[in-house]
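Researcher: Go.
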Amino acid sequence: MTAMPHSLKWLLCLCLLAGGLAGQRPATPFGPTDYSAVMVIHLKGGATQRMAIAKRGMMWRSRIAIPGHTMTELINLKTRMAYMIMPGMCMKHALPNLPPGGMLAQAQQNHAQTVDLGPATVTTGDGKTYACEHSRVTYTVHGKKQTMDVYAAKALKNFPVKLTTMQNGHTVTVTYEHIHLTPPAASLFAPPAHCGGMPGMPGFPH
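Model: Structure:
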């Protein structure tokens, strides 16, 4: 089975955590319907990885700079298709596992416990300070319990401006900057007209 795209994993985190953790707040599985932001992944040793992200309805876009060029990923949860776009190259593939409703339902079932840790204040890298609700979510992935701390900004429809979790024995923190809750342009989510299949995936042209 094809591995889930990196951006889709974080999108599912947002689906579950933005604006309604484990039923404690009004259920809004996808958080804000439309938004754009810069995702900052804080890595071990102080390094960071920045990714421009955008969401419009059921469509998701991420753009990241890698040595020498940029890589754009488009994910359409309605059609269950993903596109990876780099200069001179475009690859597409069907999303693995379940259709969107099933993915969300399964992920919600995996949430074992949510603990409200009270109010908190988060200042992001762009100098914005947000009053947040701090929650700790314990959930199950592939039979293993994991814990994620979520800081949901009240002024941004409970958008999670900060997430922390443990990976490989160390803490990984994700923060968001330059958050806008207006609909991104539809043209940002349109894949190239001609896009081949991922190498080694049956059913797609190469």
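Model: Confidence is low (pLDDT under 50) at residues 1-8, 15-30, 200-206.
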